[in-house]
Amino acid sequence: MKKLLHIIATPRGEDSRTLKISASFLEAFIKSHPGWTTDELNLFKEKLPGLYMKQLDGKYMLSGGKELTREALVAWQGIIQHIKRFLSADAYLVSTPMWNFSIPYLLKHYLDVIVQPKYLFRYTDTGTKEGLVKNKKMIVITSSGGDYSTPEASVFDHHEPYLRTIFGFIGIKDIEFIKAQPMDMGGGIQTQKIYEAQAKAKEVASLF
Ligand SMILES: Cc1cc2nc3c(=O)[nH]c(=O)nc-3n(C[C@H](O)[C@H](O)[C@H](O)COP(=O)(O)O)c2cc1C
Question: I want to staple 5 with a disulfide (CB 3.0 to 4.6 A). Which of 89, 97, 184, 201 is the partner?
């Protein structure tokens, strides 16, 4: 059975605009993909492993071409569990609002946990980097208070460029963004923008 990993990076539950759009995506996805299961990883509900000296020692062992020592393996238990969970998925849905022109801190924490040498990327003999997450698709569903669709405003958007960079780095290049914006600028436009994003999410889900 194939698996969609749904990574949730908003704490707002039923109030979340982003999750309203993701719910439409999931409803259509489940209908059109009967052979798939969904694994929900809510970053505001599940505690992520910390990255302290012992965990970072392990990272530097791997990036120096060494294997993890027994002690580092113990410190890496939580990290390895998250990496395995991430790699066990065949496709990804990321639900993340924009926070301070970028991603919420727990999504960054999650990326710092899972993006590890030898597991998600490696350096080849010629010194180039190779992403190890191959042939997997991703949908990123997002909402933001402002609207970043004009060239002038887009320079403030470090959300989409960052996510494309970090997931591209580990090998995921097939990424589609569905955005609802602006959400917090008044004018009664919010409901319409959510509705439009939900319609797009349904369309994308059935073709995914
Ligand atoms: C901590 C925080 C920081 C935010 N920073 C931005 C921002 O930089 N730019 C923006 O357009 N909206 C910003 N917003 C607004 C949210 O992106 C917007 O309300 C979004 O729809 C929230 O999504 P949610 O309802 O799914 O949680 C911020 C909201 C919060 C809570």
Answer: 89
